[in-house]
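Fold sample X.
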Amino acid sequence: MKCSTLVPFSFALALVPLVGCGSSSTAQRYDDVVATRQHDYDIEPEGEVLAMCGLDNSRSYFAYDSSALSADDQALLGDVGRCLTSGRLQGRSILVTGYTDQEGTKNYNLELGLARSRAVATELAARGVPQTRIYLRSRGEDRAKGDSNAGRALDRKVELRVLARN
């Protein structure tokens, strides 16, 4: 079973110590949410956010063992926030997925991935995106591919995807 949790952002702050695959009354497995909404929701590719917001394809990554956003990250999220509040993605919800490298335990990496998602969600909320439209999940190290320092650095990221009505 894959451990992947989707949490509405407004509830995520109350779930600070979300550990492993433990269940919570407000947390739901992402796959379960998609399965129950498969007829009226679609997950668009990450590139859709960039294309619809008119952004370039630049990426940034988190420092080792960190969930801190850089000034460049904050600027990019400001652009995404404007797109979600008054641009082409106005009224749409966003899925924020945190990833880590393979260093550390599985549970620690799930928590760190969620902390990265939460940092992005907090910045988007500060930019006016309603918390009820921001969903968080952590994949931790599940999709980590790096086997060198440079490769592991590319695994420390957050992806933004649009949840869109069909």
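Fold sample Y, listed below.
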Amino acid sequence: MKQFRLALLALSIAIGTMACSKSLSPKQVPQDVVGSLIKNYPGAVNTVWKNKGSNYQATFTKNGQKMTVTLSPSGQILK
């Protein structure tokens, strides 16, 4: 029972940490990453940046559709 409570606590902390990811300002994102987004998704607007581990996630609107892409610190598109 004690192990179950400990596992539940750890899961709750992990979910809470993910839910509280903070947005980054464009100045906090490496220029290679921003440049890659602009090059590969011209016309992207309303971009919101977040850290995803050591990578960066951009959520933006293009042609009326909301899109999300993950990029490495060097600007390589991961997904």
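Sample Y note: The chain has one domain: 22-79.
Also: The first strand starts at residue 23 and ends at 24.
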